[in-house]
Amino acid sequence: KEKAIHDFVVNTLQYDSSTDDLEKIPETSRSALGALETKKAVCEAYAELMQLLLNKSGIPCRMVTGMSDDGIAHVWNMVLIGGNTYHLDATWDDPVISSGESILNYNYFNLNDEEMLKEHIWVIEDYPRCTSEEENYYVKNKLVVDSHDSLVGKLKETVSNKEDRITIKLRGFSASDSDIGQIMNDINRETGSGLSSYKYSISEKTQIITLYDIEYIR
Questions:
Q1: In terms of pTM, does the model score above 0.90?
Q2: At how many degrees (to 10) do helices 2-12 and 43-56 cross?
Q3: Model pLDDT for residues 46-89, shown as the tens digit of each residue
Q4: Max CA separation in the chain (angstroms)
Q5: Residue 77 has what DSSP assignment?
Q6: Which residues contact 13 (CB under 8 A, 6 or more apart)?
Q7: Rounded to an integer, what is the distance from CA 41 to the centroid of its chain?
Q8: Cβ(44)–Cβ(51) below 8 Å
Q9: What stretch of H or E contains 67?
Q10: What distance lies between CA 196 and its chain's CA centroid?
Q11: Long-range contacts of 199-204 (CB under 8 A, 24+ apart)
Q12: Residue 188 · residue 196 · CB < 8 Å
């Protein structure tokens, strides 16, 4: 239920990037109802809508007021799943892409405090502690790899199954240590999969690699 609501909100709303002046952001972009009407939102509206829908579905959810690591005011959510509390940031899972593409991410889906502190700031004492990673998207879906060989194996599996998208979280080594282009070329040559094109993004702070729009010669 949490993932379905997260996906609905991210796919329905688009971040309102019409102005960099916080005082000039339309009021409709700051509230759940206004955002549903205009499909434009900033973090307050994302978090408010997530809270309303999750609570209605029986998943306890609250809003968290804090800042991004660059000092900009920010709002996100905490959810209670299976007796553990997690951070959930739907705004940052709906990135503004310069090409206009709509990309659904799970980089901030059920993070613990340790992971969240890499890019978020809040008064920790004012909120429940988040210590579990059991319901983290990447952990739950077995998308965490702890070595270069494991990364290659996961990408090879993706290409062999002719999947059009894969997201992987690295742990214990850096994405900058891996040449994704060379890895994909080697896999294509080795498997004869007919891989024709793909796009990818790398988040240095979260160490998450996403390959998408993967296409194959039919």
A1: no
A2: 150
A3: 999 999 999 999 999 999 999 999 999 999 999 999 999 999 99
A4: 56
A5: E
A6: 35, 39, 40, 41, 45, 46, 49, 94
A7: 17
A8: no
A9: strand 61-68
A10: 26
A11: 201/103, 202/175, 202/176, 203/107, 203/175, 204/174, 204/175, 204/176
A12: no
Residue ranges in 57-194 assigned as alpha helix (H) = 113-116, 137-140, 148-160, 180-191
How far apart CA 167 and CA 163 sit, in angstroms, is 11
Give me 125's structure tokens.
Answer: 């004492």
Residue with tokens 């759940």: 32
- For residue 213, the one-letter residue type is D
Q: Are 191 and 216 in contact (CB under 8 A)?
A: no
Q: Give 96's pLDDT tier (boundaries 50, 70, 90).
A: low
Q: Residue 156 corresponds to which tokens in the numbers above?
A: 């090879």
